[in-house]
Amino acid sequence: MLDYDKEADAYDATRGGEPRAAAAAQAVLGFVPPDARGLLDVACGTGIVTRRLAAARPGLRVTGLDAAPAMARRAAARLPGAVLLADSRQLPFPDGVFDAVTTVWLLHLAEGPEVVSAIIAECARVLRPGGVYITTVDKAAAHDVGSDIDTVLASRPRRPAQDHPDQVRAYAAEFGLRSAGTTRFRGHGQGRSPRSTIADLRRGWFTRLPPGEPLSESFAERLGTLPDQELPRPDPEFTLLALRKPTGKGGNQPAPSGN
To answer: Which DSSP letter does residue 193 get?
Structure first.
């Protein structure tokens, strides 16, 4: 797994920057209840999305949280006094204090199903009745856009997806959350080129292809034969899933439609 303290300085520039953040924030806000008073952005990273959530809803108190100190420092510079350093599996809040909780680009990083379950359990715990949990799912699959790069990489060993939508829904149901809709948004600036994919291979981006090993280098060599080495292929499209905590007063409130 990547060291996100080391990634912090270049994170925004290598992950689509402001255009991707704007698309993510717009999609998230489509599920946040219009009368929401408090939102917790778990694993907020550099705060590039978190800041947009706060700016779009002046009446919404937005709190960010991240486990990587360098990421949290960057987020705190964007949202002074509103970012905490903490583990997503042990949120430092009492039960039922937020109207919305988000985990954008987090669950796919979990080391196993028990970690995914623990994260979702905590997000459900701090939600108020009627509140909504919003998360990205199937992140790795989103990067397979059917390009020539994906054809070359099709046979690579893959880490089991921890954020499969059915799995996430099943865990959420265990903690009383019910489906409230899905939407998709574009990962602006994240289309891979052969040259950038080779660089990612050699820095450990693909977790089952350690840098420098023969199998990794064989994929790099094949990628190096593709045309248009600097040309990015299509951007991925990410999936966002919303899950609502029942009010206990006769069922769920109507779900927002999403984007």
So the answer is: -
